[in-house]
Design goal:
eight-stranded mixed sheet, alpha/beta, Glucose Oxidase, domain 1, PA domain-containing protein, 8 strands, PA_domain, globular
């Protein structure tokens, strides 16, 4: 188990970039590189989102579930063709709003410093992995 300190990056939820389903532009890659990126559910599968984030230099990816308080373990394709080497997690919509200060009146891409993943295990589901931002726990996460 290890810990990882990073910043979180989120793009404007009103635009497709937030869904993380297409190649990122050079400016978007610059914002993502070395950080965990937060993306929404929908439009493509979780595996594709993780591969695109990893290719853009992300240190991890956090999926936001559209349901207010629901999280679940997600799966990729039955026969994965690509290797994902970054941690992938899910948080609820409610927790995503808390990260944003409960409103979407921000300049995007938004950088949220002070994120830390504790007890990170890259190879399997971990119920012990915790995300804190500036010392405050975000949620008991589902590790993908």
């Amino acid at each position: 188990m290890e810990d990882m300190e990073t910043s979180l990056v989120i793009f404007d939820p009103l635009f497709d970039t937030f869904l993380g389903c297409s190649q990122y532009s050079e400016d978007e890659k610059s914002a993502i590189s070395g950080n965990m990126v937060i993306v929404g559910r929908g439009k493509c599968n979780f595996e594709d989102k993780a591969i695109l984030a990893q290719s853009a230099g992300a240190t991890g990816i956090i999926f936001v579930n559209a349901d207010e308080n629901k999280i679940f373990q997600v799966v990729g394709s039955a026969t994965p063709k690509r290797q994902i080497h970054i941690p992938s997690l899910m948080i609820s919509y409610k927790d995503a709003l808390q990260l944003l200060g409960n409103n979407l009146d921000h300049r995007f891409p938004l950088h949220i410093p002070g994120a830390k993943l504790n007890n990170l295990q890259h190879s399997y589901l971990s119920y012990h992995t915790k995300l804190t931002v500036n010392g405050k726990p975000v949620h008991n996460l589902v590790f993908v």
